[in-house]
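User: Can you recover a sequence for this backbone? Please restate the input before giving your answer.

Assistant: Of course. Working from this structure:
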């Protein structure tokens, strides 16, 4: 029985010209072809892989011109109709190739022409009938030495790993196949499953408190009714994880499957242990630390329906579950949910919502500091808002102090520690408690600040900080390309302390060692975690209290749950606030709330000291008062005034190439857009904040628009094949 005459195939070639459906005839012998099958097709002079995404009886093409599908590559289709729908949506929404969108649903081991075998998938050779071995040996032609040798080994031991047998006998794979053909032996694939090395931490199942119970009730209600996405806004330490666990449990009891997403950085052994302990043998884990083979095994156990829960980072949203009932994003505001590299710059939150729609599943977005966009959706009535405003077991939120570093400076303290932080750290160490010192990643540190009065120069058009550019000595706006001369003195107080800003973790460690004799410091940053396993070792040394001061960048901000930490020090909040990005205030608020949440998570109350140059900033005030709503109100006003998201789209077109080509193409694209876009705010091409990477010059054009303008953006062309253009709608970073 033939289902259809033709198959629409997306070929696995990453070139813009071939990113469309190609039709092929379905030969009679491939009558079992289904949508989602991976196939081998002729393509020009080559044979390449593709994915069947439609079956049809009609094509507007002379039938005789259509070539035939050569073969089906896997017994079962690898993709479902649902996944194909989501991939199509992604290709349109994010202006990327469909072939790449499809591949996101497949494990790496399967892409790029590899056979679908895992690293550890082994071939096992067995004698068909061990009793007849002597007959086999006699029947062999005299010159078949290798076959003879193989059979001799099998006489000793009737089953072998193929690789082992070849090694011992000197035979190769075709020798084995020849013997198989004669009917002497069988060659079978056996999957030897790697077990992930997971420490299980025994934690008793707590009784839900009333906020948690309310949240769970609401989730169950939505699960059975309108399935409106739930925004779970719970302060740090309010016990959101337990709510997720109960929701997953419920989902499974209803015969559905669940995806639990956490930011990569929070996907620690500790988190994984919580989930595996509660749902033993029902979980697959996907994260970037797995080897290709391990990832394949995990993918396979999901694909085969062996497990019903997937825990993972961003890519878990593509897990091949067939009956999803629930998708949870913990820390839904996190940047890591946005794919900023590659040609498909998707946001996992958006993909989750789309997939959930396809499965009629419920989405839970959890956070102590929801993304402004998400809270906006909730207030608009598009999400269902569930609040958990208290920490579990009536533990207080930490008390937070803002320290004005201008004061310190003017009082003659030129060190990186305020007097308050110095005192607090001494007290903490004397009490045998632990501290976390947070500072921002260096790298991009070129905003300029007056150490005396805290003044930072901003662009008047865009209200983002100007950044200092060394060679020309100018201050530049990366949104609109406005340029200003670097002033000699502070425009605000006329002092000469206008400085580029920044201090590294190493310097901080040195400072602490010199000034705090009781400190046993350890650093957690990009430098110290380069080696495999280092991250875990560092955290262990802190957990087991061999060290008492943990110094670090973003990595220390999230997910850590150490009961003995009673002090958190933030060396400079301004670093974040003055990032040249319209989300700078939101980021600051989120990060500082998270990092503050590391203090006083157990019975001992926590203290947080935040050093800054502008304690009156609404973002910092909101952190101090732990008042999300108040922050939201002020920030949303700013967004509305400036037409930044969620009141419109900010679209970034990044043009990369050699100096001249990049600039010229950026300009040409700008003129094209000028002529083709109406009702948008179009900015002049400007060098990106990181204006050169590996010798490639980077220019950007920003567009502010009330609506998506993908139809126009799709038509952007370049005149030089070495110039790359990538388009990102609502980019999270504009570096
Ligand atoms: P959040 O993710 O909201 O910051 P967690 O889920 O990490 O908070 O929970 C904080 C701590 O509270 C964890 O150690 C957790 O085991 C504990 N916890 C959660 N629910 C309860 C409860 N109902 N009673 C007591 N402790 C709880
Ligand atoms: Zn500007
Ligand atoms: Zn000044």
């Amino acid at each position: 029985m033939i289902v259809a005459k033709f198959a629409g195939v997306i070929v696995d070639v990453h070139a813009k010209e071939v990113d469309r459906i190609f039709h092929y005839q379905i030969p009679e012998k491939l009558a079992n072809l289904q949508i989602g099958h991976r196939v081998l097709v002729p393509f020009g002079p080559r044979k390449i892989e593709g994915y069947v995404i439609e079956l049809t009886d009609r094509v507007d093409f002379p039938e005789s011109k259509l070539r035939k599908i050569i073969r089906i590559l896997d017994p079962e289709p690898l993709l479902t109709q649902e996944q194909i729908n989501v991939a199509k949506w992604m290709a349109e929404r994010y202006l990327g190739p469909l072939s790449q969108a499809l591949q996101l649903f497949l494990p790496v081991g399967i892409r790029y022409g590899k056979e679908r075998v895992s690293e550890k998938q082994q071939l096992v050779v067995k004698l068909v009938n061990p009793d007849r071995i002597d007959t086999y040996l006699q029947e062999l032609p005299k010159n078949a030495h290798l076959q003879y040798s193989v059979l001799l080994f099998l006489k000793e031991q009737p089953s072998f790993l193929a690789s082992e047998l070849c090694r011992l006998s000197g035979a190769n794979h075709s020798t084995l196949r020849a013997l198989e053909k004669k009917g002497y032996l069988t060659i079978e694939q056996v999957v030897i499953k790697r077990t992930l090395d997971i420490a299980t931490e025994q934690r008793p199942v707590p009784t839900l408190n009333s906020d948690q119970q309310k949240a769970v009730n609401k989730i169950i209600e939505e699960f059975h009714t309108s399935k409106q996405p739930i925004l779970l806004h719970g302060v740090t330490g309010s016990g959101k994880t337990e709510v997720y666990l109960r929701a997953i449990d419920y989902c499974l009891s209803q015969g559905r499957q669940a995806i639990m997403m956490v930011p990569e950085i929070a996907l620690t052994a500790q988190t994984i242990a919580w989930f595996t302990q509660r749902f033993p043998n029902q979980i697959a884990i996907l994260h970037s630390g797995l080897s290709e083979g391990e990832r394949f095994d995990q993918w396979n156990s999901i694909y085969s329906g062996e497990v019903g829960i997937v825990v993972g980072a961003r890519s878990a949203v593509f897990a091949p579950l067939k009956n999803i009932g629930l998708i949870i994003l913990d820390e839904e505001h996190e940047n890591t949910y946005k794919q900023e590299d590659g040609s498909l710059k998707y946001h996992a939150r958006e993909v989750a919502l789309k997939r959930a729609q396809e499965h009629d599943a419920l989405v839970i977005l959890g956070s102590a500091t929801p993304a402004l966009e998400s809270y906006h959706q909730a207030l608009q009535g598009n999400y269902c808002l569930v609040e958990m405003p208290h920490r579990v077991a009536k533990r207080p939120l930490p008390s937070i102090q803002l320290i004005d570093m201008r004061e310190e400076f003017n009082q003659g303290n030129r060190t990186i520690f305020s007097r308050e932080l110095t005192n607090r750290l001494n007290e903490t160490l004397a009490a045998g408690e632990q501290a976390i010192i947070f500072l921002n990643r260096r790298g991009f540190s070129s905003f300029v600040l007056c150490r005396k009065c805290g003044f930072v120069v901003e662009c008047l058009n865009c209200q983002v900080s100007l950044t200092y550019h060394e060679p020309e000595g100018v201050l530049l706006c990366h949104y609109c390309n406005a340029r200003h001369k670097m002033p000699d003195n502070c425009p605000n107080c006329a002092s000469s302390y206008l400085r580029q800003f920044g201090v590294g973790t190493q310097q901080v460690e040195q400072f602490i060692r010199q000034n705090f004799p009781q400190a046993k410091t350890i650093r957690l940053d990009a430098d110290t975690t380069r080696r495999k396993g280092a991250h875990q070792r560092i955290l262990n040394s802190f957990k087991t209290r061999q060290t008492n001061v943990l110094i670090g960048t973003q990595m220390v901000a999230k997910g850590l749950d150490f009961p003995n930490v009673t002090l958190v020090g933030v060396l400079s909040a301004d670093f974040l606030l003055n990032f040249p990005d319209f989300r700078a205030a939101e980021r600051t608020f989120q990060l500082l709330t998270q990092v503050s949440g590391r203090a006083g998570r157990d019975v001992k109350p926590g203290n947080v000291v935040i050093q800054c140059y502008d304690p009156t900033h609404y973002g910092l005030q909101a952190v101090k008062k732990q008042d999300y709503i108040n922050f939201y109100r002020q920030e949303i006003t700013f967004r509305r005034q400036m037409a930044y998201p969620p009141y419109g789209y900010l679209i970034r077109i990044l043009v990369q190439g050699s100096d001249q080509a990049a600039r010229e193409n950026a300009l040409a694209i700008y003129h094209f857009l000028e002529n083709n876009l109406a009702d948008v705010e179009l900015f002049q091409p400007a060098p990106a904040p990181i204006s050169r990477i590996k010798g490639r010059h980077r220019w950007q054009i920003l567009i502010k628009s009330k609506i998506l303008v993908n139809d126009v953006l799709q038509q952007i062309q370049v005149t030089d094949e070495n110039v790359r253009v990538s388009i990102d709608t609502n980019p999270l970073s504009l570096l």
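That completes the design. The chain has six domains: 6-103, 121-191, 210-393, 399-443+505-639, 447-501, 649-729.
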